[in-house]
Amino acid sequence: MIGLLQRVRQASVDVAGQTIGQIGPGLLLLVCAEPADSETQADKLLSKTLKLRIFSDEAGKMNRSLQDIGGGLLIVSQFTLAADISGGNRPSFSGAAPAEQGRRLYDYLLQRAREQHPQVGAGEFGADMQVSLVNDGPVTIPLRID
């Protein structure tokens, strides 16, 4: 499973001009399932996201997690994270899981996130989304869970 984690001051996702998910300070997680992925990878990705210590403590060091600060989590599906550009200038997305599998794992990830964290927003799988964010730091961390 591929993730791109961004520490944000705020983030939102709109579909057809309507805001469907938004958070204040916290993390934006862009996520893509791959063909070999299962619920195991989704659970590992969520655990890493919730526990990764990338928020500043009193001394200004990255030493606090999303759970520590009680921040928001906005999860957005993004199959383009699986882009392969080795064959030329047009990316191939064959590394992404088939849509049915991707939707199932995205829905599973959202369900588990909502069970484990009090403030979770989401995009809409397969929709044309507009994502807005104020990256804090900036802090952007790629995640790959095998």
Describe the structure.
This protein has 146 residues and is an alpha/beta fold. 24% of the residues lie in helices and 39% in strands. It has a single domain, classed as D-tyrosyl-trna(Tyr) Deacylase, Chain: A (3-Layer(bba) Sandwich). Strands 1, 2, 3, 6, 7 and 8 form a six-stranded mixed sheet that branches. It has a two-stranded antiparallel sheet with strand order 4-5. β4 and β5 form a beta hairpin. α1 crosses α3. It is globular, with a radius of gyration of 15 Å.
Write the layout of secondary structure elements.
Layout: E1 2-15, E2 18-23, E3 26-32, H1 39-51, E4 55-56, E5 62-64, H2 66-69, E6 72-77, H3 99-116, E7 120-122, E8 129-144
Parallel strand pairs: 3-6, 6-7
Antiparallel strand pairs: 1-2, 1-3, 1-8, 4-5
